[in-house]
Structures are given as structure tokens and as C-alpha cells.
Amino acid sequence: MRVTRPMLALSGAVAILALAGCGSGAKDEAAVPKEVTGSLEHIAAEAKCKPNMQTDADTIRQAICEKGKEKYILATFATDRGQREWLNSAKDYGGYYLVGRKWVAVGQEKTVTSLQGTLGGTMEEGSEHMNPGGSHNKGGHHS
Asked: Using an 8 Å Cβ cutoff, are 119 and 47 in contact?
């Protein structure tokens, strides 16, 4: 096989991206732990919460937890689709959501941000359509 300039350029670009990628994510990966999985009780235990069960159905289990003086909702779902449908509806009301595989924690930004350090997951922010003026969200913008 004959090596041409475009092939060398492509190989060089791939090598640069690979090297850049090796060092760029290390700091972020250390900041967020591996995402927890399991039952609502297991996730609550990881968060050091004694869950106050509110809903215990086949498709969703939901409890109120406390972190210091702040309360938050912890919910687990039977399916990924059920979780996404719930999130899509709930986010219309604003708020902050820490999202894991088949679980969600909902509460004040500082509360769910600190939970991320324990539970892993990704942060999502709800819409401000239902709370103009930022009663839940800051900045008057969508994410």
C-alpha cells in the first residue's frame, strides 16, 4: 500500500486527537465518581439518606430524602423509557436533576450538585417556562 499525503495527514490528526484526549478528561473523571446503580434503598444508602417513601409502584418508586437542611426527591424507574418520559414532563417545572441509569435526584442546585460527588450521574436543568423570575433556576436562560 502506498502512503499518500492525505493518509499521513489523517494519521497525524488521529494521533493528535488521541494524545489530547488522554490528558483532557482525567480531571473531570476524578471529580465525578462512577455512577451508582440499584434499588431506591441502595441508592439512598449511598447518599446517606433514610428514604421517606411517597410512591411505591411497579413503574416508579419515589421518596423524599434530606441532605442537611435541604430536601430532595429520589426516584427510581422500571425502564429507561419511563425515566425519560418522566424527566421530559418534570423538567417543564424547572429545577435541577441529577440523572443516573434508571434513577433521578431532584432538588436545589447545590444539593444535587453535592450528590453528584457521591452518586455520579449527569446534571440536567429544567425549563424556566413555569417559573419566570428564576425561583428554581438562575440566570433566566435555558440549558
From this structure: yes
